[in-house]
Write a structure and sequence with these properties.
Blueprint (H helix, E strand, L loop, with lengths): L2 H83 L5 H82 L4 H13 L5 E5 L2 E2 L8 H9 L4 E2 L6 E3 L3
Parallel strand pairs: 1-4
Antiparallel strand pairs: 1-2, 3-4
Helix pairs in contact: 1-2, 1-3
Amino acid sequence: MAPQVKDNITALKKAQEIDREIYLAQEQLKEIPEEIARLKQELEVEKGHLKELDGVLKKLQLAQKQKEGELAQKEANVKKLDGQLSQVKTNKEYSALQQEIASLKADNSLLEEEIIRLLDEIEAAHEEVRKESERLKQCEKEFSGKEAQLSQKQKELQGNAEKLKSEREQFVSQVLPEIRSLYETVIQKKSGIALAKVNGENCGACQIKLRPQLVNEILMGQNVVLCESCSRILYVEE
């Protein structure tokens, strides 16, 4: 390999080691907002569950008030009919009033049972809301802790990436402009791996068998050669 091309490849190999670290850091940085979004979604689910339980509780409380209002109205009717008993003049009217009062009292008895059932359900619903409220507080606490950790990790990764970019510049600055431009294009498309070592007659990256003419061209070292399959820059280890 001609000294000039060889020197460029040597510098690029060192740059690629750093670029690989940068790529991995960038991939982790991409994952952090996604992870925070996922944690937020989980928290929203918990909030939605609490809201749902609270809605059930409010419906039960409303049903209780409605039944109590209905009971109060029927009790008032019973009291009113009781007052009319002394005013009727015939046994038939008296008997009819008694039957109506008995029917209302039976209804009232059922209403009282329904109210007691509702009170039991309300008590249970209150307990569910209390438990879920405590659970939500714990989830919010855990979310805040994880979010803070992820934010700190994000800062560290960003700082390290910037440091690595500065280090890589020491090596890519040694490379000819046209080769550097090619390297930058390839590495952006190939997930941080722009160089591929030739293993026998195969590309070390995609494992495709290289044409003999291409292998000879690489060995001659007059030009930078790309793999015809994966388009990475090929080199031989000396």
